[in-house]
Amino acid sequence: MASAGSSSTGGLPLEILQALSKADPILSSETFAQVPFESIKAALDRLSSRSMVTYQQVEREEAALEPEAETIVSHGSHEARVFDAVHKAMGGLSIQDLEKEIGDKNVAKLGQGKAFKAKWIKKDGDKIVSLVDSVDDVTRDQLRTIQEKRTHEPKVIADLKKRKLLKLQKTFSFKISKGPKFALEIVMEETDLTAEMLASGSWKTATFKPYNFNALGADQHAGALHPLNKVRQEFRQIFFEMGFTEMPTSQFVESGFWNFDALFVPQQHPARDLQDTFYVSDPKKAGRPGPVSPDDGRDYDEYLENVKTVHENGKYGSIGYRYPWSEDESLRLVLRTHTTAVSAAMLFKLASEYRGGSSPPARYFSIDRVFRNESVDATHLCEFHQVEGVIAEFGLTLGGLMDFMEIFFAKMGLKNLKFKPAYNPYTEPSMEIFSYHEGLGKIIEIGNSGMFRPEMLEAMGLPRNLRVYGFGLGLERPTMIKYGISNIRELLGHQVDLNFIEKNPAVRLDKD
Ligand SMILES: N[C@@H](Cc1ccccc1)C(=O)O
């Protein structure tokens, strides 16, 4: 516990006060050259919080000697050494003898040049002789001054720097002055008013430490929204605004039936390959699709039969794929490769509602995780998120889909879309959607879409003249573009840096 009264502390803070009482202001780099920067700063903060000193940080350029300059300070400049050698030798020196005398060919050569120019020496036959009795070694004197003071006249500094004898370094130091409560004693400050102080009456004379309202609180490590969650939230909002209902998407494991067969993807399609799809090894197979709800009296056998027929020989005006369809293959379990598996099951449910008398239109969306067996790089992971929408209505047209896409993406700030014909086994026609991205300065693909095929819809029992739009896009890409993230691994997967998540502007709750 702190004792009451006027006991004082010493150490560096006191030394600073003592130095200030002799000179004001002082420069820490001169007066306390040996003390580490952090220690000085801590002492100054203590003193300035009591208004005993004021200080500011100053940046200075200091000159430091290169190794060659240190040799000059200890042995003299090249020219002075040449002069000394020549002057000492009675009757002058030959060039060879001069080199021998100095012991460094380079110094002898450079020094001669300068000494000739300064008219300290001259040639006399094959000898060099001195012209004066003594010389001022200006360079050495200048370097000595710099060694002590770390500075000199600008012209001298520039000159020596050109001769590569100096280097300039930035240094930080404090300019310290007396504060309004300057004194030569640091009184202990009390932080608490205690029962003892009240009892003894010492509180009357005690000095209390003022509250520091500028102190930062301890880091609270608050929870943070993941950037993907935030963008997902924005998409959900857009869907709700446009009258969509969210589909239940919790199921990552799907039968091949809903992921592929129901979508008229033939069983030998490359997307069903092990290279592209993760298959579950235990259990390997799903049961047959069950009723959507307990009071749904639909005949699943009929639906499976329809799917089999449409794949094998065709139906509803289609000629099919002409291959033997295997129910076993359709029941293999996969990690869903697209959320269109969810849409398919949802449309099947819609078909049973239609039979029960309640009719489309319907608008559904989902945003959830999908899995593909891809090699991982800066923009690809084995798992990512898809945003998917489905609209079922009578009388829909392709132009209407393009129109809808313009409106949907405009809500995310993406305008001037471009549509390119594409292929999906389950939609006809199909279109890839592109947009010009100003930040990237190029056209980028933003989604895939189409009108679901009768082979898919009619097999479910949906009416022939009902049209269904479908569209899908990734969640990661818009998130990466929006928040300037260049590597998808920073966003998702086992390498995510929590620090990045906490610091990213995308995690703030407010809209930015
Ligand atoms: N499933 C498609 C997206 C899509 C959904 C619905 C209709 C058309 C296309 C994909 O993964 O890219």
Describe the secondary-structure layout.
Layout lengths: L7 E2 L1 H12 L3 E2 H4 L5 H13 L3 E13 L1 H9 L2 H11 L6 H8 L2 H13 L3 E4 L2 E4 L7 H12 L4 H9 L3 E13 L7 E2 L7 H6 L26 H15 L3 E2 L6 E3 H4 L40 H13 L14 H4 L2 E3 L4 H16 L6 E10 L11 E12 L3 H13 L7 E7 L2 E11 L4 E11 L1 H7 L5 E9 L1 H8 L14 H6 L9
Parallel strand pairs: 8-11
Antiparallel strand pairs: 1-7, 2-6, 3-6, 4-5, 9-10, 11-12, 12-16, 13-14, 14-15, 15-16
Helix pairs in contact: 4-8, 5-7, 6-7, 13-17
Bound molecules: phenylalanine.
Pfam families: PheRS_DBD2, PheRS_DBD3, tRNA-synt_2d
Catalytic activity: tRNA(Phe) + L-phenylalanine + ATP = L-phenylalanyl-tRNA(Phe) + AMP + diphosphate + H(+)
Keywords: Aminoacyl-tRNA synthetase, ATP-binding, Cytoplasm, Ligase, Magnesium, Metal-binding, Nucleotide-binding, Protein biosynthesis
In words, what does this structure look like?
- With 512 residues, this protein is α+β, with helices and mostly antiparallel strands.
- The protein folds into 3 domains: 8-65 and 145-204, Ribosomal Protein S8, Chain: A, domain 1 (2-Layer Sandwich); 78-136, Winged helix-like DNA-binding domain superfamily/Winged helix DNA-binding domain (Arc Repressor Mutant, subunit A, Orthogonal Bundle); 228-506, Bira Bifunctional Protein, Domain 2 (BirA Bifunctional Protein, domain 2, 2-Layer Sandwich).
- 36% of the residues lie in helices and 21% in strands.
- It contains 19 helices and 16 strands.
- The protein has helices spanning 11-22, 28-31, 37-49, 67-75, 78-88, 95-102, 105-117, 138-149, 154-162, 195-200, 227-241, 256-259, 300-312, 327-330, 340-355, 398-410, 454-460, 476-483, 498-503; strands at residues 8-9, 26-27, 53-65, 121-124, 127-130, 166-178, 186-187, 245-246, 253-255, 333-335, 362-371, 383-394, 418-424, 427-437, 442-452, 466-474.
- It has a 7-stranded mixed β-sheet with strand order 8-11-12-16-15-14-13, with helices on both faces. Strands 2-6-3 form a 3-stranded antiparallel β-sheet. A two-stranded antiparallel sheet has the order 1-7.
- Strand 13 and strand 14 form a beta hairpin.
- The radius of gyration is 42 Å and the shape is elongated.
- The two termini are 49 Å apart.
- Residues 1-7 have low confidence and may be disordered.
- The site of phenylalanine (PHE) has 11 residues, from strand 15 and strand 16.
